[in-house]
């Protein structure tokens, strides 16, 4: 019966044929399955009637349809009758598959619907191969209506064991899986590749897919284990931090109680001291008042006695006696009345304490603002106040919380053009640190000439620290003058050896090995040799039209023009021609005939010597040189005079 059932099964729906069509190739197909094939071949903008052919899913034979479409194909009535009889026999027979299935289900665990919300779920009637979910009849109708894309889902009898399901093909029940569809990420059999929906898909062998998936899983598992280990370490750190937070909290709470108790004790002691002062002031005040009361009492007694005496004289009626006795009394009463301010003592009736007052409003405000100490605000570097020389920079800064700052820390490094200052700041190895600065300024010594530096200032107190915004400051170039010992005898140096002028008067000068000596090499060298850093100087050319400016080794010959040898590099003008010269080779350079200010930049560390029209901020030429020895500025002149400006900061147009 099982073999017969497989012969009566549609290759598309894997169910018994329903309304089977007899194809010209002698194979059969359900009418609905044939309709689904046509629907799958029909594009969204074409009607179904436009499909005129399709392939047999069993033998790949091309079936041509006439104008009636599927209705033009013959019905396989004989096959339909056989199926009808088979179904009756299956239901009524003692060994029918239905009864066998029922008996099996009674022995085994039934397959439950995986979509039901009720408890317990209903029994599954189908398993969707596409969804990989088993459904009961109600859930199947709800989730798989007879519409696209659900019509293309593959429904099979409920599958109980997922492992057993993976060993046999889900679309061809009696076929073992032996390959893997990469497109659908699914195990398939050979028939799936030959005649099924995977025929055009890319497939691989099971062993190849096994090795690849196993390797991927092992790698992911290793990464997962590693990540879990990192998470465990992180958790341990977090737990440790939490414990430390508890310890710190307890410590700060105890410190708070201790500090507040000390404040309360100070207030209690001050209360006692002030109370004693109040009592002492009270005693002094009352003592003064008692003295004033005694004075008043004494004055009052004298006044009363005088009044009694005057009243007694007034009672005398005898004129002679009255005149004899009252005259003295009248004088005393008149004197007492006239001098009442003298007789009546100055009584101080002020009850207030003149020497102190109780006013704790300032202390109350301080107590109301009582809080834990916070890190100071970030200081601000004042670029306009900062100064520089060729090897020093003085940094000035301000702070809003100056009184809460315990100290400052200055950090600096050479600026390399990096704009990510956070990343630059975190590279601790490259920073120089000056700790424990008490003022709001500091001078850094020993810096490279003509070099830009990045500075940070950190304000520090017991609660923490905060950094200022970065400031980029640069040192000036190395200052120098013209060295008289090197100047040609027909050159005159003036202006503190900053100006050189052609002088045909042939002043007598002693011969030295450093002096430019031959006829025509009217030159002089700078007073310093440079072996590191970045240096910039300018030459004021005035009306001179014949000169050479550059650098040279100490060993450069002094009896020939600079640039004629391998030890010197110069920018030169000869009347209307501008050129650069080295090792006897000359190259013309475009420059304005109005060039009056020549800038020279020696970047020793980066192996370059550049020349600029300083007034017009124009680059003229750059020598790329790997300097092997220290070099000195060198100057030659054949007419007029030139003036040297050294120790200058590197201009911004040169930096850019």
UniProtKB/TrEMBL annotation:
Q: Where is the B30.2/SPRY domain?
A: 460-653
Q: Where is the RING-type domain?
A: 10-60
Residue intervals of the Fibronectin type-III domain: 375-478
Q: Which SMART domains match?
A: BBC (SM00502), BBOX (SM00336), FN3 (SM00060), RING (SM00184), SPRY (SM00449)
Q: Name one GO molecular function term.
A: transferase activity
Q: Which residues form the COS domain?
A: 314-373
Q: Which residues form a coiled coil?
A: 214-248
Q: Keyword annotations for this protein? A: Coiled coil, Cytoplasm, Cytoskeleton, Metal-binding, Microtubule, Repeat, Transferase, Ubl conjugation pathway, Zinc, Zinc-finger
Domain B box-type, residue spans: 164-206
Q: What Pfam family does this protein match (any one)?
A: zf-B_box
Q: Which CDD domains does the entry link to?
A: Bbox2_MID2_C-I, FN3, RING-HC_MID1, SPRY_PRY_TRIM1
Q: Which domain of life is it from?
A: Eukaryota
A Gene Ontology cellular-component term: microtubule
Localization per record: Cytoplasm, Cytoskeleton
Q: What is its main location?
A: cytoplasm
Q: Which GO terms describe its biological process?
A: protein localization to microtubule
Q: Give the PANTHER family listed for this entry.
A: E3 UBIQUITIN-PROTEIN LIGASE MID2-RELATED, E3 UBIQUITIN-PROTEIN LIGASE TRIM36-RELATED
Q: Which family does it belong to?
A: Belongs to the TRIM/RBCC family.
Please state what the protein is called.
RING-type E3 ubiquitin transferase
Instruction: Write down the species.
Output: Oncorhynchus tshawytscha (Chinook salmon)
What gene name does this entry carry?
Answer: MID2
């Amino acid at each position: 019966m099982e073999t017969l059932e497989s012969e009566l099964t549609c290759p598309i729906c894997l169910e018994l044929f329903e309304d089977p069509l007899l194809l010209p190739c002698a194979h059969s197909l359900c009418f609905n399955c044939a309709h689904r094939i046509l629907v799958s071949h029909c594009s969204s903008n074409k009607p179904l009637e436009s499909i005129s052919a399709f392939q047999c899913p069993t033998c790949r034979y091309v079936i041509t349809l006439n104008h009636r479409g599927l209705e033009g194909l013959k019905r396989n009535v004989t096959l339909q009758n056989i199926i009808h009889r088979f179904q009756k026999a299956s239901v009524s027979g003692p060994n029918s598959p239905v009864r066998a299935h029922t008996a099996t289900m009674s022995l085994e665990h039934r397959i439950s619907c995986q979509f039901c919300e009720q408890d317990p779920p209903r029994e599954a009637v189908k398993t969707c191969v596409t969804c990989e979910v088993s459904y009961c009849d109600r859930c199947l109708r709800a989730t798989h209506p007879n519409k696209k894309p659900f019509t293309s889902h593959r429904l099979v009898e409920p599958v109980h064991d997922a492992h057993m399901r993976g060993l046999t093909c889900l679309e061809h029940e009696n076929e073992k899986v032996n390959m893997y569809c990469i497109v659908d990420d699914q195990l398939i059999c050979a028939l799936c590749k030959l005649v099924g929906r995977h025929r055009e898909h890319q497939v691989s062998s099971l062993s190849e897919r096994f090795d690849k998936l196993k390797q991927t899983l092992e790698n992911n598992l290793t990464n997962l284990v590693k990540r879990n280990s990192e998470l465990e370490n992180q958790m341990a750190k977090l737990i440790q931090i939490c414990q430390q937070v508890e310890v710190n909290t307890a410590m700060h709470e105890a410190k708070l109680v201790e500090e507040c108790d000390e404040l309360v004790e100070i207030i209690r002691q001050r209360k006692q001291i002030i109370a004693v002062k109040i009592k002492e002031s009270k005693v002094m005040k009352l003592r003064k008042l008692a003295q004033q009361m005694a004075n008043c009492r004494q004055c009052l007694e004298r006044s009363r006695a005088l009044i009694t005496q005057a009243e007694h004289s007034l009672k005398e009626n005898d004129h002679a006696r009255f005149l004899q006795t009252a005259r003295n009394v009248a004088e005393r009463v008149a004197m007492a009345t006239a001098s009442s301010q003298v007789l009546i003592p100055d009584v101080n009736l002020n009850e207030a304490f003149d020497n102190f007052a109780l006013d704790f409003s300032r202390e109350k405000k301080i107590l109301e603002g009582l809080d834990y100490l916070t890190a100071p605000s970030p200081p601000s570097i004042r670029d306009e106040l900062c100064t520089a020389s060729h090897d020093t920079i003085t940094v000035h800064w301000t702070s809003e919380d100056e009184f809460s700052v315990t100290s400052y820390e200055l950090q600096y490094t050479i600026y390399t053009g990096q704009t990510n200052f956070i990343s630059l700041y975190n590279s601790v190895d490259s920073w120089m640190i000056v700790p424990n600065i008490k003022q709001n300024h500091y001078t850094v010594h020993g810096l490279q000439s003509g070099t830009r530096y990045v500075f940070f200032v950190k304000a520090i107190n017991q609660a923490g620290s905060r950094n200022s915004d970065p400031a980029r400051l640069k040192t000036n170039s190395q200052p120098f003058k013209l060295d008289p010992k090197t100047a040609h005898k027909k050159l005159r140096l003036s202006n503190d050896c900053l100006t050189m002028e052609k002088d045909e008067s042939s002043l007598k000068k002693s011969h030295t090995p450093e002096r430019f000596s031959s006829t025509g090499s009217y030159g002089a060298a700078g007073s310093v040799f440079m072996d590191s850093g970045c240096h910039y100087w300018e030459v004021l050319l005035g009306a001179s039209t014949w000169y050479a400016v550059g650098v040279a080794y100490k060993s450069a010959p002094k009896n020939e023009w600079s640039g004629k040898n391998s030890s010197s590099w110069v920018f030169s003008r000869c009347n209307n021609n501008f050129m650069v010269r080295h090792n006897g080779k000359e190259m013309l350079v475009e420059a304005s005939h109005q060039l009056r200010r020549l800038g020279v930049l020696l970047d020793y560390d980066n192996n370059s010597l550049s020349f600029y029209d300083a007034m017009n901020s124009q680059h003229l030429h750059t020598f790329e040189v790997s300097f092997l020895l220290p070099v000195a500025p060198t100057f030659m002149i054949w007419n007029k005079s030139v003036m040297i400006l050294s120790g200058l900061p590197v201009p911004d147009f040169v930096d850019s």
